[in-house]
Structure formats: C-alpha cells, structure tokens
Amino acid sequence: MIRSVVRGTGAALPRRIMKNADFEGMVETSDEWIAQRTGIRQRHIAADDETTASLGEAAARAALADAGLTPDDIDLIVLATSTPNNTFPATAVEIQNRLGMQHGFAFDMQAVCSGFVYAVTTADLYIRGGLAKRVLVIGSETFSRILDWSDRSTCVLFGDGAGAIVLEAGEGAGAIADRGVLAASLRSDGAHKEKLFVDGGPSTTGTVGHLRMEGREVFKHAVGMITDVIEATFSTAGITADDLDWFVPHQANKRIIDASAKKLGIAEQKVVVTVDLHGNTSAASVPLALSVAVADGRIKKGDLVLLEAMGGGFTWGAVLVRW
Ligand code: UT7
User: Fold this and answer.
1) Cβ(237) to ligand 1 under 6 A?
2) How far is residue 154's CA from residue 247's CA, in Å, rounded to a whole number?
3) For residue 310, how far is its CA from the centre of ligand 1 (angstroms)?
4) Residue 281: per-residue pLDDT
5) Is there an atom of ligand 1 within 6 Å of 159 CB?
6) What is the pLDDT of residue 72?
7) What are phi and psi for residue 18, nearest 5 degrees?
8) Can you tell me which atom of ligand 1 is nearest the CA of 222?
9) Domain harbouring 297, CATH code
10) Which end of the chain has the lower number of beta carbons within 10 A, N or C?
11) Dist. CA 221 → ligand 1 center (Å)
12) Do 18 and 156 fall within a single domain?
C-alpha cells in the first residue's frame, strides 16, 4: 500500500525575540507569572517585512533542502494558517509563486492550532488517493498581528513562526512497522466558539479583529479532548503509549502538555517541549517542535512519533507517524 513518508523538515523564525520581561512595562504581568503558568520564556515576533508567506516560504525552502528536493519535485502545498497574508487568495498559492512553482496546486487549511495535524492528515489522503506524490505541508503564523497588546491574558501567550515537512509517496506493507503516516483522528465542535475566537472577519465586521480567549475554560477542556483523540489513534493503530518513541504535542502551555502526557502514561523524556522558546505559534507549533527535535538528533528514521493539537473551534486531533 501507499504510505506518506516524511522526507524532510524545516523551520523559520522571525529575527526579533521578545522575552517575558519585555512585557513588564506594557501590561501588568511578570516573567515569573508567565513562566510558572505557561512554561513560556520567550517568543519570536515578526517585523513588518516578515509575513505568514515569507516565513512559510523560508520553512518550505529549508524542508526542501533537508529532503534534497527542489520546488519542481512538489505537486501540492497545504498551508495550515489562521493568519493569512490576505483574506484571499490563499497564502499557500503565494508561497507556491514565491518558490517559483509553475505546476501543481496549493491551498490553505484553517483549523487554528490544530491546523498542522489537519493538514498532515489531508496531505496523506491526497498522496494515498494518488492525486499527489510529494506534498509540502506547512504551518505558518503571524499571531502577533491579531493580538490585543493591551490584554495581558492573551498577548503574552503567542508568537510567530513557521515549520514545514515534505511528505512523499512510499511503499508500505500495511503494518505498524511501515514508515509514514500510520493513523489519525480528527475532531471539532463549534459549540465552544466563544471560548477562543477572533472578534472580526470579512463577513461580519469587515475587519481582521483580535484574538479573544477564556483561557481557564480552554484549559479545562484541553486535557480531556487531547487524551480522547490520542486514545482513539492508539486504538486504530493497535499500540499503547509504551510503543511511542516521541510525543510532539501542540505547544500552548507546559502544564497542559505535562497533564496530557501523565494521563496517557507517556514518559517525560519522550515529550518534545519547545513552548519555552516559541510560545504558542498555533499551526506552526507542532512543525517547529518537530524541526527542533529532528535537528538535535532526537527524532530519527524509524522512530514512532505522535503529533497532537487542540485549539479554536474547538478543533483537535492526533496523527501517528513512523519517521
Ligand atoms: O492554543 C490554543 C489553546 N489554548 C490554550 O491551550 C490556552 C489554555 N489556557 C491556558 O494556558 C491558561 O488558562 C492561561 C495560561 C491562559 C491562564 O492560566 P490560568 O492558570 O488558567 O490562570 P487564570 O486564567 O485562572 O488566571 C489567574 C489569575 C487571574 O487573576 P485573578 O482573577 O485570580 O485575580 C488573571 O487575571 O492570573 C491573572 N492573569 C495574569 N496575571 C499576570 C492573567 N493573565 C496574566 C498575566 N500576568 N499575563
């Protein structure tokens, strides 16, 4: 059977780093509060010339270089983002043009923080359905543009950045030992819209709007939703937490990551944590964490890797990949 195998990873971060202490003169907060409640120590913030398209392009080029491929080798670009350069066209198409790709197709996927997990699942289906052989899956965000910088309960949490992987059609036996995407589980529930949303949009206010979140409410639901969808993925794949080599969760809050890993019985040393470095970069958080753990040699060919995310919508999901 056809399997969607990871061939390369890449990342891109804005030049400017903003430390927790940099917020202290802006809103009533402290490095101590942010670090203790979230695990975040710093985040990257995009300059005017750094956009979702430019960061996505840079991450895509890094993933292509890592894979030893060129844009000519790619059939499809799926970009997970909630902060596109324009309302339309899709920023994925802009990235396609920036890469000089004059063939194939590209589209954006909007599932907020779960965007990358949704995008990997979608790309896998395009590959297994025979519509594409090689897909660039990108998560790129500039959440700094939609933050209310006077709201301490949200502005300290998010950051900008991009991560990408190249998925390529390969052969598998249909077994858990195959390399590639092995199982996935996706969920959404619009009843929770008001807990995490942006208060503007083309069809309502005609403005971009700002992110609004009832953090405590999101927190309350997060661990249960994350563990449910991971247990469903384990059941589809016929594995347990002990079979995993690496857990690469959405990087929103270290306390959510720790509580989810504990509830699932995933050992602490198998958990990839980058929330301290990047903050919550929404759809970019999982591929950024992946690129860090691949670059430092933790994630290696043949490892069993579990990706997970939960965010606005609510949306949530998990994907199991043999690297
Ligand atoms: O990626 C999408 C998914 N999003 C998430 O996963 C976020 C989920 N939520 C969270 O991570 C946490 O709920 C937060 C980090 C947002 C907040 O942590 P918390 O422990 O749930 O704090 P809280 O909201 O219960 O607030 C505790 C106190 C409040 O003061 P009072 O009412 O107890 O007097 C807040 O006003 O902390 C206050 N507070 C702050 N204090 C200093 C809120 N933000 C700040 C701040 N600095 N930046």
Assistant:
1) no
2) 26
3) 17
4) 99
5) no
6) 97
7) -115, 120
8) 6
9) 3.40.47.10
10) N
11) 14
12) yes
Quick check: CB of 253 below 6 Å from ligand 1?
Answer: yes
Which sequence positions are flagged as catalytic?
113, 250, 280
Asked if residue 33 has its Cβ within 6 Å of ligand 1, the reply is yes
Measured from the Cα of 311, ligand 1's closest atom is 2
- The confidence band for 137, taking pLDDT boundaries of 50, 70 and 90, is very high
**At which of 137, 171, 205 does a domain end?**
171
The pLDDT of residue 307 is 98
> How confident is residue 73, by pLDDT bands cut at 50, 70 and 90?
very high
112 is in which domain, residue-wise?
2-171
- What is the C-alpha to C-alpha distance for residues 45 and 120, in angstroms, rounded to an integer? 25
162-204 residue pLDDT tens? 999 999 999 999 999 999 999 999 999 999 999 999 999 999 9
Tell me what pLDDT residue 110 has.
Answer: 97
| Closest residue to atom 38 of ligand 1, CA basis | 153
Strand 76-80 with 105-109, pairing: parallel
DSSP conformational letter for 242: G
Is residue 265 left, alpha or beta, with left meaning phi > 0 and alpha meaning psi from -120 to 50?
left
The tally of CA atoms less than 13 A away on the side-chain side of residue 291 is 29
